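Assess this:
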Amino acid sequence: MNVPKIKLAYKLYGNPSDPVVIIVQGLGMPLTATPPKLVKNLVKKSLCLLLIDNRDIGQSDIIDIKPPNIILEALKYKCGFPVNSCYSLKDMMNDINNLLESINVDNAHIIGVSMGGMIAQLMAIHHPSKIKSLTSIMSTSGNPKMPGPHWDVAKFILSGTKNKNINSPVSFYHQLWRLIGSPVYPRSSSELDEFVDRIMSRGMTPGGSIRQILAILSSSNRCADLTKLNLPTLVIHGDKDKLVPVECGIDTAECIPNAKLWLIPGMGHDFPYELLTEFTNRIADHLHSAENKVQDEKIH
């Protein structure tokens, strides 16, 4: 069967002559989930940001396939049985690779957040010549030995995918971010309102979120492939993450040779506004160091 290519929506920020940095967002999140201040600050650091909407979210192509029962598939995953999915994380990785080819970007740095970190890892594994550095944020290697989401978070998300009204999601997302946000850096109601408005105005699809969950549940263990990577890698994780526990970030860093690990006390599964300047500086230093390494290798 000839499957048409998925068209990904994207936005470019900064000077295209600067090093290109792909930012891949997490489960159910459009490109507007990336904090605007972080985008602005990284552009000021002489970086060109390519923000994308993954398939099934935002303004990218939506997959018109009814997903199987998410509760049943989650139980199958928990019991070690194969999960039925509408597509895979590798398919989502291929979407990004096809986009890079269509806009003539030969190589780039890649930053992945949560599910986006899994996709970014796959890009580094399958297209190493195109990826100059990897930044994996609050993500995981797919190692089945790692702990999963805290039960209260998993229960809320699974029930929410069935019950929430996507046209009136404020209550759902307020509760979700109260559960998974940073306990040391709590967000006010007005800040959560602004965040929800930002992601909703870009476009959200409940079916897309379910299909993305199934893609995660059906993904394989990437540990063996990650051990073969040879590129500058920065792993960032909060020690209070209830969605992707901190052990997953530690494991990711241990899998990738010479990876740098930044563990953040008190951070959950979000970007604390109070730490955005430090995020900017650490990520920019990592990217420019990797860029310099690439340039040195070209000379020699």
Observations:
- The longest helix spans residues 276-299.
- The domain at 10-299 is CATH 3.40.50.1820 (Rossmann fold).
- The beta strands are 10-13, 20-24, 48-52, 108-113, 131-137, 233-238, 260-264.
- The radius of gyration is 18 Å.
